[in-house]
């Protein structure tokens, strides 16, 4: 048995695979997000307990011994730990918006672009650079108490194995890594005003770190490899490694990835270049802030169950009777294929005659247009694979093929966990049939007439988006979120989704 662990934003999963890559079993636990005034945090102890629980459940259900385990998880955010790997404070999520005002100043004074020109990665409020700088200004005691600022999977790996704090080149790509040297760029650290906090950056293990399990959730001595994080792990699990080929992850975030053998540090500062385990190869990534989370919000607001989506899409024509959605619902704005912390979602064309089906279809179409924008910006020229919770809807997958105007290689199952196993196997020298492990389960072709209709719709979407960005820029930076209140204040809201569609 080969085990892949995927520590997602709202769902922690562990999947078991046999030697041929067939998925044998999955165990999952939901974890909460605490939201307050644009601040989004997670309880690290809850996350780690969920990892241990799903591993214990999985190994109890599948009797074969564990050959090795691979670990992946959500990227970005700040996970401050002490010398023992224990949390210093709640983790600041990649969805966090507290640093948007700081990022706005960096956009205005040139710091943002200067960092992109050195790293190929465009910062956003929930990435470690702005978050660490915000904490240094507003919560320095937390940084003083921390031994390392790691990423989600790094915290889990440290606790599962007892290995020293470390990260890998994929997580380190945002925002401090020089993609050419695969090492931290100290000039970037200085530009962000964090030179005095340089010691908090976890050492980069290249190739990914390995260690034996201590016995929590997995048998003692089980071989584990740490990384890459969920986006490149999904690319590995979907077989996206050749330059020009791409992957669209339709999850909580809408992530477009294209494999490349070249760096473009001179283009528009947007997206990121994710370093991979192959020097000289990167993933040009456009990870939009909101994917299925936008649809989840619309479903919750209108009282529509997930099980009703396919029927509503089938009963509503392309164009949704004139209803349009710009799906930028994240409290921290958008980060790809452009950066605009002040951008917010827009719903137009609604009348008393509009139906729930119109709202659902318009949201799905808006997310599809956002995906096309990201893939175009990332330089897609080859085949396109898709995965993620959104692809569990056959009707939405067909809609995406029409909006994108190209065939979709659908990769089902726990793709990130699969990629984590393949990365672990490569690190440990275990021979697996990668082609068999990454075989698509279906290919969905676009309908020519609908694809032509959506090509026109995409041009209209870009025009509406351009106008919305101009309005956001004129509005200026909104007030910064306040810190999470202390004792006696209203507690932050904790979200526990009924169904995770996270990546």
From TrEMBL:
Residues 469-503 are annotated as: Disordered. It comes from the Bacteria. Residues 275-425 form the Carbohydrate kinase FGGY C-terminal domain. InterPro entries: ATPase_NBD, Carb_kinase_FGGY, FGGY_C, FGGY_Carb_Kinase, FGGY_N. SUPFAM superfamilies: Actin-like ATPase domain. Belongs to the FGGY kinase family. It comes from Streptomyces glaucus. The keyword Protein biosynthesis does not apply. Residues 1-205 form the Carbohydrate kinase FGGY N-terminal domain. This is FGGY-family carbohydrate kinase. Residues 474-492 have a biased composition (Low complexity). GO terms for molecular function: kinase activity. Keywords: Kinase, Transferase.
